[in-house]
Amino acid sequence: MHEKQKSVWQKYKEKNGVTPLDMLNPNTKQADFTLAEKRFNICKECPELIPLVSQCKKCGCFMSVKTKLDAAKCPLGKW
Questions:
Q1: Structural domain of residue 61, as residue ranges?
Q2: Which of 13, 33, 34 is nearest to 23 (CA)?
Q3: Which of 10, 50, 56, 71 has the most CB atoms lying inside 10 A of its own CB?
């Protein structure tokens, strides 16, 4: 079962660049302010964003946090 869980997280990281645990890790490299702001502005225009909570319907991440992580990727390839 551990191997199956590992492959799920590997697939998630390949698609999103980060995992939910990376969002909580203080050692995760942060994107600079300009890049994070640019990414989040793209998210704000996306129909897959739930504006009330800034959550992406595709990956489930809270984009106000995810966009600040340097290695993060949009699951739709928008940034």
A1: 28-79
A2: 13
A3: 56
Residue 63 has pLDDT above 60, yes or no: yes
Total number of domains in the chain: 1
pLDDT value at 5 more than 60: yes
Token pair, residue 55, equals 């959550």
Tokens of 18: 């980060």
3-class DSSP state for residue 49? strand
Q: What is the DSSP letter of 52?
A: T
For residue 20, is it within any domain? no
Is the residue at 38 inside a domain?
Answer: yes
Confidence of residue 19 (pLDDT cuts 50, 70, 90): confident
